[in-house]
Fold these 2 entries.
Entry 1:
Amino acid sequence: MSDNLLIETKEIGDYRIKIYYDECPSCPVTDWDMGAIHIFEHLERGRYWLSQNCDWKEHVSNPREYSATEILQRVVAEVVTQKAIVKYIKAGKVNDVRLVYNRSERQWELQAKCNSGFYKGEWVNQIEIEPSALKSDDYRMELLEPLDEEDLMTLVEECAKDFVIKEWSSCGYSQDDHMRGFSYMTKEMFDKRCGFSPNYYKTWQEQARTVIDGEVDCIGKWAWGDVKGYVLEKKESYTKVYSDGREVETFEWEEIDSCWGYYMDTEELIDEVISEHGLKETAA
């Protein structure tokens, strides 16, 4: 193991623990059974691209053709009813977007205020819908199109049933090391993948948010190269005999165990190794 990957060394009696960076960590999203669905994009060449390693296959056929926001729109359309979307927009909760009834044309008009160009400050029609069609046909994607990420998240949080969603971002060590996205879990997914722990949480939603936070933390460690491993060595004493007959008592470190793929802080991993192997300091 290259010392270039060595993070920390700690001696415990006749044992030595060496903590390294894991060169080939597994991706939590693709290689683990995660509790939540994770959609995220990474910064590359000045713009954000949907990650090949997120759960994009749940919603689209080609990640290069979509953004996280576009997938979020699809998620909202799946879990929020059209009636709730219409009510949310009519209530005036979306900045620069409104749904008004044109009596002369006898139709609903979804309008967005233009923020630039020749029509700056004017309301521009996005779609026109007949009243009967608004009740019978599916216009969820069209109604959600003008909404930004904040409105989409708020709409889900207020109107989706048995559904938990969290927006998040993660930074690495260089200027362009940045990811952003969202993660979600349905009650059905929670029951199947997690199981409620009433001794620790008041509601399943609280536990689901904790699960999402832990999984997102692992995704960040994987993305920024913070996955670790350890090598455990034991001091083996021997007598070295020189050509002139001199004898010197010395020792060598012999590897007795190693393991990789730890998504935890260095000190936490050291404590894990000490506990697992029952290591104790020897008396001086």
Entry 2:
Amino acid sequence: MSYLEVIWKGIIKSIKEGTLVSKNLFPMIISIIVLVKVLQELNIIQYVAMPLEPIMQTMGLPAEFGIVWACAMLVNIYSALALIPSMLLLVPSVTVEQMTILGLIILIAHSLILETKIAGRCGLSMSFQVGLRLITAWICGVSVHLICSHFGFWQETATVLFKAGAALDFTGWVLGELKNLVQIYCIICLVMMFNKIINALKISQFVGFILGPLLRILGISKEATNIVIVGLVLGILYGSGIIIQAATEGRISRIDAFTTMSLMSIAHALIEDTILLSLLGGSLWGLLGVRLLFAISVGVSINLLYAKKQQQLELEKGTV
């Protein structure tokens, strides 16, 4: 089989997988788009966003972006991407800083219902995982906003891929949303293809070579380090599957399961998700570097707190 045949079969398979994923996602995404349109026509979308306004303001974001983040938290990243054109009609001018912060909080806290259920299957507290991701996302957003405001980083106007013109009638709105859905479908197919390229080029092994020593310094065992790398590159679903199997077989401890899952909840699918959110006009390196930095900080904090707890337990045993 020639290289061209291999490439062609890979493209066809990626399109088939992308079509299947889109078939599952689009009914939910379309219902959200319609709901937001109804809220806009009734002129009450600002009241829906109002409860989120104080939180978004602390991160330098308009209240309307709170709806996008809420949608990402409850559904997934793709549903948030689909809402961006509607929100940009209400907030026509955005900076690279704002879109980087929006991208970061979505990357850290998205698909909370599904992904915390996965964490629960690993034997971890779902409420803790939700709280950890929400608090980390907010601290990350506030920190980036304060640093950018002080030093003047990323103040230029953002170039957002997903945009919509002000539709004068219903037909114009429908055609605009169809265009955006076609864009999302193409992106999903490209993501499928990109994952195949990552696997073929063994990029996960390269990432493991770079991050492995750092993760072991954090106190994560060698077995758990391999699991974290899988989650960081491929996604939380793959990493959690390995955690469940390893914990069942006794190859990793409970603290390893807790630490790795917490770290992966903050940073997973680093390549795929980062590229997706960079389409909003944020800084690619900001989305990747800042998220990874906060994930490592969470890992360090958890290890330090656990070590302190273990010392207290040992002291209590010694006094008995």
